[in-house]
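Support request from a user on the community tier.

User writes: "When I paste my structure tokens into the form, the page sometimes reloads and wipes my input. The last time it worked, I copied everything first. Here is what I submitted, just in case something in the input itself triggers the reload:"
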């Protein structure tokens, strides 16, 4: 099965043409074959396109609806649209020379009325993705479960006071681990979007952290039982959407993982803007993770330092990215540890 050239016609693979090129669809500075510290940039960077940002973000903000127009979103039932969207994505990935992609479960498949229906929808899209990966050579960097968008997760997933929500979240992660393994994913990410609290007046903080740790141990145990050998990653995120998040930054994440005996299984996936929201610099977070031997991956999207939410913009600060690259090289690169 080949990814059809129907959604991005008129140009082939984006090529490196140097800083002087006038071609708007060319790399000016990224030369995949350039050698840095004994490795090519392509080997260093291992770029992955995030389905969440590139193909599911709608271009909205807290004060207005989405503004992004995508022709492939129109027409057909939800599964037909999801497959057409995936065709567009796998046409895009090779054209921009991205060797990897990554996703949340609900990014690629519509949620059903029941967990069984949601899993059936996911199975259909995983089969489609498997064919497209084979046709294009694009690999899966990581998978994860969306444990934040559905209203059931308003008060968290693993830290939710309702045992039914905890169980539902566990079942969703179980399935996400299975499909990540099926697609050959190299990592599995935990992003605690709502694992925190708004007020201590109705929060048993110690119990919630105990539950979060137990949830992660269950995931590790299940991964072993099905033969998933990928690296577990945790992505720290402060203040959004909850006021106090348990994985506030890398330092608090290290303390949590070591307290509960999880540090042998997890490394960190560090996002530029989450560092900003925590009051740190991007390279500070990289250095803290590297010093602990827990630097795993980079989520290289940034935000506006004058705004108080996650705007998920391209990283364009040359000074910030240069310092981050120095820290990554000094750490020996992004190296995964198998469990």
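"...and here is what came back when it finally went through:"
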């Amino acid at each position: 099965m080949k990814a059809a050239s129907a959604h991005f016609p008129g140009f082939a693979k984006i090529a490196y043409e140097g800083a002087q090129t006038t071609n708007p669809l060319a790399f000016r500075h990224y030369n995949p074959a350039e050698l840095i510290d004994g490795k090519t940039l392509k080997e260093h960077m291992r770029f992955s396109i995030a389905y969440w940002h590139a193909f599911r973000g709608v271009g909205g903000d807290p004060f207005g609806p989405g503004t992004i127009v995508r022709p492939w979103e129109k027409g057909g039932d939800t599964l037909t649209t999801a497959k057409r969207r995936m065709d567009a994505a796998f046409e895009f990935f090779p054209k921009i020379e991205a060797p990897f992609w990554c996703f949340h479960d609900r990014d690629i498949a519509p949620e059903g009325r029941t967990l069984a229906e949601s899993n059936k929808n996911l199975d259909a899209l995983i089969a489609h993705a498997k064919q497209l990966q084979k046709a294009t050579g694009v690999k899966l960097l990581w998978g994860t479960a969306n444990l934040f968008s559905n209203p059931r997760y308003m008060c968290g997933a693993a830290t939710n006071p309702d045992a039914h929500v905890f169980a539902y979240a566990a079942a969703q992660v179980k399935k996400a681990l299975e499909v990540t393994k099926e697609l050959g994913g190299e990592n599995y990410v935990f992003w605690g979007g709502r694992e925190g609290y708004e007020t201590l007046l109705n929060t048993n903080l110690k119990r919630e952290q105990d539950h979060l740790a137990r949830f992660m141990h269950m995931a590790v145990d299940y991964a072993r039982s099905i033969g998933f050998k990928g690296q577990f990653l945790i992505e720290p995120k402060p203040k959004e959407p909850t006021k106090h998040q348990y994985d506030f930054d890398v330092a608090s994440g290290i303390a949590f993982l070591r307290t509960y005996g999880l540090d042998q299984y997890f490394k960190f996936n560090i996002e530029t803007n989450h560092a900003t929201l925590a009051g740190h610099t991007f390279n500070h977070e990289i250095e803290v993770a590297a010093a602990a031997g827990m630097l795993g991956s980079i989520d290289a999207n940034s935000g506006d330092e004058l705004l108080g939410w996650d705007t998920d913009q391209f990283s364009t600060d040359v000074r910030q990215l240069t310092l981050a690259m120095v820290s990554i090289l000094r750490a020996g690169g992004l190296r995964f540890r198998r469990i």
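Agent notes: The reload is a front-end session timeout and is unrelated to the input. DSSP finds eleven helices and 13 strands in the chain. The radius of gyration is 20 Å. Escalated to web team.
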